[in-house]
Amino acid sequence: MLDLHAFLADAFLRVAPEVAWLSPDQVTDPAVVDVALCWYPAPDALHRYPKLELIQSLGAGTDHLHPALRSLPDDLSVCRVTDSHMSRAMSGYVAWAVLNQQRQFKAYAAQQTEGRWLRHPMQSAGEHCVGIAGQGQLGAACAGTLLELGFQVRGWARDIKLNMPAALTQFAGPESLEDFLSGCDTLVCLLPLTPDTQGFIGERVLRQLPPHAHVINASRGEHVDQDALLSALDTGLLAHATLDVFHEEPLPPEHPYWKHPRITVTPHVGARTPNDQIVRQMLDNLLAIRAGGRPRTWVDRARGY
């Protein structure tokens, strides 16, 4: 489990040495706590702080906060972390994952261990369509990167987004999901985790993809129905899956993902915000709230993002 206090201690010393950065067991007077910076807090972890002004997520999502938020005041501000570094990092990860499968680089890595020189047929980027489910900041950045590499790119979200790349084909709403999926050679999941998107990569979605499709999940582990994914891979309904996030992290050594020949596992490395940036953004959010404004990364708690 992440020791959040130790994880951010150096960043607070560099960025805001005047701020008292305390772990829960160091708090002697809960009434002096202004901000709770959280990553998977216990459901009752925040009740003891009567004067909270801000709950700050450590990551780009806030789904991990939901159990702890349920009984807190509706007007208590919740913010997530977002920055250009995270967008660039995620774009790089997604581009690598797409190319790793589309260009068959895993096969070449295996051939190297055997000293075998063999070229496989190569599909051009323009013949390959990547679908991105989730068109927020990260999804938009990934779309732009993939378009620059020459891929066809389509995006799906709850509604049509403005200021997206002109070459991006947009699909919106549940009624367009089947059309969106049917044209995806690669499906990238970057959706926010909400009750509606939990288990998104399940039997229904997997059956609507072409059988040669590749699925990439870099959002939340709970987006995947694990049994449905393994079944689709084992029966040939799906060609490959690249997974960076999981229901349980670290992924247990005995989990079937590790040794599955059609799964690539990475240990939640898709995108990470520098610690100094997390602290600066938290302080900026608190200042915005105290000035009577709404922070740029404010989260609509009803929608979950």
UniProtKB/TrEMBL annotation:
UniProt KW keywords: NAD, Oxidoreductase, Pyruvate
D-isomer specific 2-hydroxyacid dehydrogenase NAD-binding domain ranges (all copies): 97-270
Superkingdom of this protein's organism: Bacteria
GO MF term set: NAD binding; oxidoreductase activity
InterPro entries named among the record's database cross-references: D-isomer_DH_NAD-bd, NAD(P)-bd_dom_sf
Annotated SUPFAM superfamilies: Formate/glycerate dehydrogenase catalytic domain-like, NAD(P)-binding Rossmann-fold domains
Pfam family membership, one: 2-Hacid_dh_C
Name of protein: Glyoxylate/hydroxypyruvate reductase A
Species: Parapusillimonas granuli
